[in-house]
Design goal:
alpha/beta, 5-stranded mixed β-sheet, about 45% helix
């Protein structure tokens, strides 16, 4: 089996991005084609599963061909196909899986199933060539919030995870209540930035949970924000959406950063990475840069375009499984509620 110049085709269709990518040796992106469905779902205020899966069906073949063209290669030049099998929307996952299986059946290439969370973690390898285990990774997205200790290649330990809502889900919910539309995360970030430099008044609760816990809970702060807005409306008081966005963001990010830093101290890890759509949040990046600089920790942040769902991160994860000969059976099925195995 080859040990270098390994080219993996990645396919990602877990939610509302149709993406295909070719990555060499797990670190070099040769192509990364993405079709985003944001415009399709924004009128509904969130992702509609049936709309998402139908769009994937329409876009998967053109996106695959575009990725190969941009990488200047064809199927015989590939070494394997990596595809997201979960977690995600079942209909969307099946589109990517079907495409990957068809390619493998017709070409004889091995199939590598990838957990979506592992893909997000590996996005950091594409942005930071010097990053290697051990390191901590904060995974923050619309569906996930967890702290993962990457002990070595393919060896993970989940230190903490959300007990209810994911942080991105909380952002989207508050954005809807404020009338900002979908997706909510970037819009709240921009609004809050207008009040940058201000000190938080502690308007909303910080959910640290029990002492020593690295788990998260965002349902309480979400409810607190919604109740605050309803109270202002009943009193006929003017609603300052910038202030609410700012205070909400400070409340959730203060907890996230503090728990991440504390877990680094307790587990004696001096490298921290971040992954997932919320990793693009400017305030989160500023807070982590500040804290890591103060404590002498090495911070690795993925490029903003690699924070949201993309196939390059799936191809990168596939490379490490290819090296370990961890291939999947062609009977691999989608697992929409798949948990990330530590």
């Amino acid at each position: 089996m080859k040990t270098e110049n390994i080219k993996i085709l990645g396919i990602e269709t877990s939610c509302d991005e149709t993406s295909a990518s070719v990555v060499c040796d797990g670190r070099e992106i040769l192509s990364n084609s993405i079709y985003s469905q944001i415009d399709l779902h924004s009128i509904y205020g969130g992702v509609v599963p049936e709309v998402a899966s139908r769009s994937h069906i329409e876009k998967i073949n053109p996106i695959l061909l575009d990725a190969l063209k941009n990488a200047s290669i064809d199927f015989p030049d590939l070494d394997a196909v990596a595809v997201t099998y979960g977690p995600g929307l079942v209909g969307s996952l099946l589109v990517g899986l079907s495409a990957a299986k068809a390619i493998c059946l017709s070409s004889g290439l091995p199939l590598i199933g990838i957990n979506h969370i592992e893909g997000h973690i590996c996005a950091n390898y594409l942005s930071s060539p010097t990053l290697s285990p051990p390191f901590l990774c904060l995974v923050v997205s619309g569906g996930h919030t967890q702290i993962v200790l990457v002990k070595e290649d393919l060896v993970y330990q989940t230190l903490g995870k959300t007990k209810d809502d994911a942080i991105g889900e909380a952002y989207d919910k508050i954005a809807r209540v404020l009338g900002l539309g979908y997706p909510g995360g970037p819009k709240i970030d921009r609004l809050a930035k207008e009040l940058g430099g201000m000190q938080s008044e502690g308007l909303f609760p910080r959910a640290y949970l029990e002492e020593g816990s690295f788990d998260f809970s965002f349902s309480g702060v979400k409810s607190s924000v919604i109740n605050y807005i309803h109270t202002l409306k009943m009193k006929g008081t003017e609603i300052d959406i910038r202030k609410i966005a700012f205070e909400f963001q400070e409340a959730v990010l203060e907890v996230v950063v503090e728990k991440l830093i504390q877990s680094a101290k307790i587990h004696h890890v001096n490298q921290i990475a971040v992954a997932g759509g919320v990793a693009a949040n400017s305030r989160l990046r500023d807070l982590l840069n500040q804290k890591c600089s103060e404590l002498g920790l090495h911070l690795f942040l993925p490029r903003v375009d690699l924070c949201t769902d993309n196939a390059a991160m799936i191809a990168s994860a596939g490379y490490y499984r290819y090296k370990a000969s961890l291939f999947s059976n062609l009977r691999l099925n989608s697992i929409p509620n798949e948990t990330f195995h530590s």
